[in-house]
Amino acid sequence: MSKRTQIDETIQKYFTKKEWEEMCSYEKMRYTNIKLNYDMMCKLGLAPKTPDFMLPRKRKVIDNDTESDEEWTPQKERITRKVSFKHPNKKKQDVEPTQTDTSSDKMDVNGILRKDLDIARTTLKKIARNIQKLEDNIYDTDDSDSGDEVEEVRYPRRSVGKKDYREAEIPDDDHFIYCDDCEDEYEGDCPVHGPLLVIEDKKIPADGSDPMRADHSIPNNLSIGTSGIKNAGSGVWAEVPFPKGVRFGPYEGIVTYDSIEAHRSGYAWQIYKNGRPSHFVNAKDTSKSNWLRYVNCACNEEQQNLVAFQYHGQIFYRTYKPVLQGSELLVWYGDAYAKELGITRGDKNSVPKCIMDKD
Ligand SMILES: C[S@@+](CC[C@H](N)C(=O)[O-])C[C@H]1O[C@@H](n2cnc3c(N)ncnc32)[C@H](O)[C@@H]1O
């Protein structure tokens, strides 16, 4: 036999005196359970919808002794809902009797209560599972995938470990985002450290009417100027400090399938679909691209402050470490292209062609 919940007398405040007096103990228990469930979800930070009965109601006359049903606007709605409760499908003999109540609608109400309790229990079990997974994730005690169905909280699809930011990120599943703090990938935003802080471009029409669209799209607090890298042309500079975890982009340009043209331009990112090369986004044309085209390739890991990543078929840049005010935004183009620029990171014997002006 299921244990009965104690009626929480504090819920009385959500009802009029008359309503409370007329309410049978099953209803009070039902509201108690709804509130218990709600409180638990709040404690877990799940931002549940406030149960209707707990919402403030308009009251025409604030006098407990004299009020009638007509004095409360939403009460009519509540009473309508109360009578429209569906009878449980279970046969009456299947329903466990409770110890104390003798009211005529005992079986029906009991069935409703049991259903509510079942829902609450299932929800709490799911929450408990989610918490466990989160804890496992935070403390890195268990990387295994239990195969459990988890709702509302997203978990890493796989433990990818610490990134080598010199490696090009070739996604086989680009709806996952790497979290630099967890060192893991999540479907969408990291449930522990939250979403990346998105910095939007200035909105400039991409119809080709502005030949300098790329320059004009640059957000506040960033500027385009001569790069600090010798012979690299223009670059992008931070006018203010940026924290780790800021997202810029997407990288905009013309879609092309011509790999030779893309390669020659020096402004094209390759897009992958299911781990295979698909097409290129070429930002050579300044009337069809945005400011991200001006971000240069870092000469070494110390300089690098951005990583390029593909998300939902587009290339974005994110700060993976704090960017100091007055420093140049520098990303890694990928080993092959960097080599062509004379950047051979990790190769101590290479002749350093890629040098900053101040070096
Ligand atoms: C996407 S563009 C970057 C913006 C370019 N600096 C500009 O003025 O338009 C890529 C080109 O910038 C230059 N570049 C970028 N990083 C460089 C580096 N580390 N060393 C030398 N040239 C670099 C190369 O000419 C490269 O083809």
From TrEMBL:
Main location: nucleus
InterPro entries: aKRAB (IPR003655), PRDM7_9_PR-SET (IPR044417), SET_dom (IPR001214), SET_dom_sf (IPR046341)
Keyword Methyltransferase attached: yes
Keywords assigned: Methyltransferase, Nucleus, S-adenosyl-L-methionine, Transferase
Region (Disordered): 64-106
Cellular location(s): Nucleus
One Pfam family it belongs to: PRDM2_PR
Biased composition (Basic residues): 81-90
SET domain ranges (all copies): 220-334
Cleavable signal peptide: none
The keyword DNA-binding belongs to this UniProt entry's keyword annotation: no
The name this protein goes by in its record: Probable histone-lysine N-methyltransferase PRDM7
Annotated gene: LOC106475858
